[in-house]
Design a protein that fits this description.
The chain has 171 residues and is mainly alpha-helical. 89% of the residues lie in helices and 0% in strands.
Length: 171
């Protein structure tokens, strides 16, 4: 690889890494919420099916709210956030962040989906959907990174997150 191509790839990698660090910091919030609420959902299912479905809907609504609360401000203020955290030399990471952050919405929903699948004993479906999403992400990254650099990697992650979530419904 020539020095110029190597430097370009290194810059893409640095920008992508900066964007992902910010984007993925939000992933722990749905995990904490899910871990906290999961036992209550299990209890509700044992007590009353209607109550269980009501609580399940509230749980998914909460996961959506948390995800959108992270996604929307990050989408609009990506360059400002990048500049504050990493400095102006990483300003190109802002565009990558504005795409990659949307995967967080599907991570939040996927976390909720996993809780629901565990309660309903659909663990096999969750496994295959997650595996398919991971494989798709790898397969999309190969051409997308070549064509679009760090933005391609962010797009691949977003597409794979959407597909991984929707495949559970099909399985």
């Amino acid at each position: 690889m020539s020095d110029i191509r190597h430097q370009n790839f290194a810059r893409i990698l640095v920008d992508y890494s900066a964007a992902v660090k910010i984007s993925e910091v939000w992933y722990f919030v749905p995990m904490v919420v899910s871990t906290t609420i999961y036992p209550k959902l299990v209890e509700c299912k044992k007590i009353n099916q209607d109550l269980y479905y009501k609580r399940l809907q509230e749980f998914f609504s909460l996961m959506n709210l948390i995800s959108y609360a992270a996604v929307i401000p990050t989408f609009f203020f990506n360059k400002l956030i990048i500049g504050i955290i990493f400095g102006d030399q990483y300003v190109n990471a802002g565009a990558i962040l504005s795409v990659h952050i949307w995967a967080g919405l599907f991570v939040g929903l996927g976390t909720g989906r996993s809780s629901w699948c565990n309660i309903e004993n659909f663990t096999r479906g969750t496994f295959y959907a997650t595996l398919a999403g991971a494989v798709l992400n790898i397969l999309l990254n190969i051409p997308f990174i070549r064509l679009y650099g760090g933005m391609g990697a962010a797009l691949a992650t977003l597409i794979a997150s959407v597909k991984g979530l929707t495949l559970t419904i099909a399985v």
